[in-house]
Design goal:
By secondary structure, this protein is of the alpha/beta class. The chain is built from 15 helices and 16 strands. The protein has helices spanning about 80-85, 90-95, 100-110, 115-130, 145-165, 185-200, 220-235, 250-255, 270-280, 285-290, 300-305, 325-335, 340-345, 350-355, 385, and strands at about 1-15, 25-30, 35-40, 50-55, 60-65, 65-70, 135-140, 165-175, 210-215, 240, 260-265, 280-285, 310, 375, 395-400, 400. Strands 1, 2, 3, 4, 5, 14, 15 and 16 form an eight-stranded mixed β-sheet that branches. Helix 4 crosses helix 5, helix 6 (about 185-200) runs parallel beside helix 7 (about 220-235) and helix 12 (about 325-335) packs across helix 13. The two termini are about 35 Å apart. Bound molecules: 3-[(4S)-2,5-dioxoimidazolidin-4-yl]propanoic acid (DI6) and fe (iii) ion. 3-[(4S)-2,5-dioxoimidazolidin-4-yl]propanoic acid binds next to helix 3.
Length: about 400
């Protein structure tokens, strides 16, 4: 049989089962038409193969390509001054109320061209690609008006096209209140639902819709309005929920059958039960927790007990998680939140795929799924979560095609 790619002399970590690494030693994997066509013990490799490219994995480990399922990768400007302010005692909420925070990024993003947005995000994307990321979610939310929100999403699509990896876009118009709507949050939500969201949808730029349900964001009632408008368009929802306080956001997300509820440090027992019933993924974001020096850890034991799938992502953004290392997030999910390394890795593969509605497409090594693969020079996949500041990636493939993180755009 004719195949595009054969990777042999590897160990596989498939994440095919809900827990554990899915270890298959001394194995090989075949790719045809961008999909995994066969995998198994090397000695069982079908005879008479006609292969275009053959890779000798030299005893490395092959995992699903990593998935960063929560990022705000596209923005302009800098917020590093806020890092100093926070170290000097200001809180994230203080800075936001004083006109800094998200709103300062909005100002810079509105002033940036599409090319400028693509260019600044490209270096961040490359850092993620160098660590084996083959699928990424990118949110809008730094425009807070139609044209800029659309431009951010266009930048995200362009980054996907030029890099060859899969980009899922999320419309986050309800991220913060723009200054021109000060004191009129309900009117702004009207604009989000009546104009911005329909425009993003009509342009084919929104794969999902998110909101920031928080004391410094939007209320549960306002979040519901966004979700109702989203449902009417037939798009899936996600939610920044229970990050800094318990507003019942995770339960609200579950009520709408959300793909994911993200952050969830303050999620209550009842919210955890609601997530479990809905099959909604809890996306853990240790970078923001760490950077804000938060102390309330997400209810990991309850997620485990109730069978809520846990994903792990960078939350890459200029304010609360200026981080472009998903491997570091795996480590921190273990050290700060108490995940096991296999749980952390499943959180950046199997469960991250579910958080993007891609469970049937990627995030596991299984016949028929997209050949999104990462090959690592490690003794065991747990090493990926154990080491930090070390990148053992040898190569990665998206849809069966080699990913080149340094590729110049046309
Ligand atoms: N929660 C976050 O962690 C980011 N957005 C959100 O709603 C922070 C975004 C920023 O500070 O720029
Ligand atoms: Fe976020």
């Amino acid at each position: 049989m004719r195949s595009d790619l054969l990777i042999r002399k590897v160990h596989l970590s498939t994440f095919a089962d809900p827990s554990g690494y899915g270890e298959l030693r001394n194995a090989a994997l075949l790719v045809r038409d961008g999909r995994i066509a066969w995998l198994g013990a090397e000695e069982a490799l079908p005879a008479g193969l006609d292969v275009a490219v053959e890779i000798d994995g030299e005893g490395g480990w092959l995992t699903p390509g990593l998935i960063d399922c929560h990022t705000h990768l596209v923005w302009a400007g800098s917020r590093t001054r806020e890092f100093e302010q926070r170290l000097a005692g200001a809180t994230y909420q203080d800075i936001a109320r004083a006109g800094g925070g998200i709103v300062s990024t909005v100002k810079a993003t509105r002033a940036a061209t599409l090319e400028e947005l693509v260019q600044s995000a490209r270096s961040r994307l490359r850092a993620l690609l160098r660590e084996g990321v083959t699928t990424i979610e990118i949110k809008s939310g730094y425009g807070l008006e139609t044209a800029t929100e659309l431009r951010q999403l266009q930048a995200a699509r362009q980054l996907g096209a030029e890099s060859g990896i899969a980009v899922k876009t999320t419309f986050l118009g309800a991220h913060a209140l723009p200054p021109e709507y000060a004191g009129r949050a309900d009117d702004y939500i009207g604009q989000v639902c009546g104009e911005m969201l329909p425009a993003a949808h009509a342009a084919g730029l929104a794969d999902a819709v998110d909101a920031f349900c928080e004391s410094i964001g939007f209320t549960p009632v306002q979040t519901r309005r966004v979700f109702d408008a989203t449902r009417a368009l037939g798009l899936p929802v996600k939610l920044h929920a229970d990050q800094l306080s318990d507003l019942g956001g995770a339960a609200l997300a579950a009520e709408y059958g959300a793909l994911s509820a993200d952050h969830v440090e303050y999620a209550s027992e009842a919210s955890v039960a609601a997530l479990a019933r809905a099959g909604t993924v809890a996306v853990l974001l240790p970078g923001a927790f760490y950077c804000l020096r938060e102390t309330k850890v997400p209810p990991i034991a309850a997620f485990r007990a109730q069978g809520v799938p846990m994903a792990v992502a960078t939350d890459c953004n200029p304010g609360t998680s200026p981080c472009t290392s998903l491997l570091l997030m795996l480590h921190m999910a273990c050290t700060l939140f108490g995940l096991r390394p296999d749980e952390a890795l499943a959180g950046a593969t199997r469960h991250a795929a579910r958080a993007l509605g891609l469970h049937g497409e990627t995030g596991r090594l299984a016949v028929g799924l997209r050949a999104d693969l990462a090959l690592w020079a490690v003794d065991h996949p747990r090493d990926l979560a154990c080491y930090f500041g070390h990148n053992p990636l040898i190569a990665s493939w998206s849809n069966g095609a080699a990913v080149d993180p340094e590729k110049r755009s046309a």
